[in-house]
Amino acid sequence: MSTPHEALTPVNPQKLRSGLSRIWHAAGYSLAGLRAGWSETAFRQEVLAAIVMIPASFWLGRTWVEVALLAGSVMLVMIVELLNTAVEAAIDRIGFERHELSKRAKDMGSAAVLLACLLAGGIWAAALVQRFA
């Protein structure tokens, strides 16, 4: 049986850290997540597109708000892709057998990526039309 103190002690040692130590370790976990995301073809493609599109947003956008929308929409696609990959990894961790709830979770993650791509595409199309039409 556990003591009251053990019941309050977090399982995750990160929860016991504070200050710069917590930030340092959190940054390490974030970099590990980016490295894990890099193993996904879709994420690599989105990063390569971002390498072109984010600098282009500074040229295409006329105000800081336009630049933020253009660059932010590209970043949003990568963020949603990482979250989709995390959902897929968690589902696969549970098991590879076909289950309707697993399929729904993966399909919804994929739909979120699609919506983020459509949003980014719409923002970029509107900016291009405004700039050149």
Secondary structure elements and pairings:
Layout: H1 4-8, H2 19-38, H3 41-60, H4 64-94, H5 100-132
Helix pairs in contact: 3-4, 4-5
Structure description:
By secondary structure, the protein is mainly α. Helix content is 82%, strand content 0%. It is built from five helices and no strands. It starts with a helix and ends with a helix. The model has no long low-confidence stretch (mean pLDDT 92).
Considering the chains and any ligands shown, give keywords for the structure:
133 residues; 0% strand; mainly alpha; extended
Summarize the structure.
This protein has 133 residues and is mainly α. 82% of the residues lie in helices and 0% in strands. The mean pLDDT is 92.
Number of strands: 0
Q: β content, as a range?
A: under 5%
Largest sheet: none
Helix content: over 70%
Along the chain, the helix and strand elements come as HHHHH
Pfam families: DAGK_prokar
Subcellular location: Cell inner membrane
Keywords: ATP-binding, Cell inner membrane, Cell membrane, Kinase, Lipid biosynthesis, Lipid metabolism, Magnesium, Membrane, Metal-binding, Nucleotide-binding, Phospholipid biosynthesis, Phospholipid metabolism, Transferase, Transmembrane, Transmembrane helix
Cofactor: Mg(2+)
